[in-house]
Design goal:
Rossmann fold; 7-stranded parallel β-sheet; 4-stranded mixed β-sheet; 41% helix; 15% strand; disordered N terminus
Length: 376
């Protein structure tokens, strides 16, 4: 695995704000140990290269179906290549044990694994649903549960200005809004976001931090990386033969007759993914540099959105939710048994001004346009 230039932050031109206490040339970062799950995917490869270019050590974890140990043996001396299926807890445990044995500690764990099916909710069978939840949600939970004991043990020996451990979980803008054609995938991302946000309250006292990265559609191929954006998947995990198109980590499901029309909302996600392949993509190279900085800063954000369209998508969604709450709060306050005077006054003011009398909400159209960059 070839190294990139050491001065990546100078090339990329991106720097976390001073409020996060990021690594600077005047105050260099200490070398850290990373585990990157999904290291053979497009963002995972870029991240491993960035980590190695900065002099850190990394356990690069690939999927058993994509790599062999022989292929990984030729990687950089600071890189330990391992195979793992995040759905299978013993393989995740083996990664933790081997990493501690090799490096002596674990500082940062990144999960880049992901799998999605493009198709109407009605068209996705039990195998489609289970595969997405097992990889996207249960895989993340397995990683967290099996690494937390290591981080908590490290917490007892850490310096006051150091974190005991860091999680960087790649979520998606699909974890912030629903996307037609990606219902179950969105559900896995919503679940992951809720899991990580809840866990942070539980582990904050141990000095453990986490960031949810919400990328827009990631560019599949950086210059010189080779490969194809779209591949054909011939077999399924249960052995069933398929001849379906695969874009990145998304499997395109053939639409049933009710949803097989050019303008069907259920085909929206497929159209967006195909359209975005060469338009306004998020650079995996630049994203990897920001993620490296996240691993080394002292006060990381809970969420980091990558890509201008992704920012607009999430912002429009939050705006529409806020507007809908304001439109209907007179009913929300009305069902309370005990209301303070402020809430009562707000509800009365809204009734006098006529708010909340229409069905829909002002941000509804914003949601539709916001979906264009909600595939991550």
């Amino acid at each position: 695995m070839a190294l990139l230039s050491p001065a990546l932050h100078d090339v990329v031109g991106l720097q976390l704000p001073a409020s996060t206490d990021p690594p600077l040339s005047s105050h260099p970062a200490k070398h850290k140990v990373w585990i990157v799950f999904g290291a053979t995917g497009h963002i995972g490869r870029s991240l491993v290269k960035s980590v190695l270019a900065h002099g850190d050590q990394v356990t690069a974890v690939g999927r058993m179906m994509e790599n062999t140990l022989q292929q990984m043996q030729g990687w950089h001396e600071h890189c330990l290549g391992m195979l793992c299926d995040v759905r299978v807890r013993p393989t995740v445990q083996a990664v933790m044990d081997k990493s501690v044995e090799r490096w002596g500690r674990i500082d940062i764990i990144v999960n880049c694994t992901g799998y999605g099916v493009l198709g109407a909710c009605e068209d996705q069978d039990a195998c489609d649903l289970r595969s997405q939840f097992d990889i996207n949600f249960m895989g993340t939970l397995n990683i967290i549960q099996l690494s937390l004991p290591i981080f908590r043990q490290q917490a007892a020996n850490r310096d006051d200005d150091e974190n005991a451990g860091r999680y960087i979980i790649f979520s998606s803008t699909s974890g912030a809004l629903g996307v037609p054609g990606l219902g179950p995938y969105c559900a896995t991302k919503y679940a992951t976001e809720g899991l990580v946000e809840s866990m942070l309250y539980e582990v904050d006292a141990f000095g453990i931090k986490a960031t949810l990265v919400q990328p827009g559609h990631m560019r599949l191929n950086e210059p010189g990386s080779g490969g194809s954006a779209a591949d054909t998947l011939d077999t399924r995990e249960d052995g069933t033969d398929l001849k379906l198109r695969k874009y990145g980590h998304f499997l395109v499901k053939k639409s049933s007759e009710p949803y097989d029309t050019p303008t069907a909302p259920a085909s929206h996600a497929k159209r967006v993914v195909q359209w975005l392949l060469d338009r306004q993509p998020v650079s995996a190279f630049k994203s990897a540099e920001l993620v490296w900085q996240l691993g080394h800063c002292r006060y990381p954000p809970l969420r980091l959105i990558l890509g201008s369209y992704a920012v607009e998508s999430v912002r429009d969604r939050l705006r529409s939710v806020t507007e809908e709450i304001e439109d209907w709060k007179h009913l929300s306050f009305g069902v309370s048994d005990t209301r303070d005077k402020t809430d009562s006054k707000d509800a009365q003011d809204d009734e006098q001004t006529g708010e909340g009398e229409h069905q829909g909400h002002p941000g509804a159209m914003d949601d539709a346009t916001a979906m264009d960059e909600s595939i991550g």
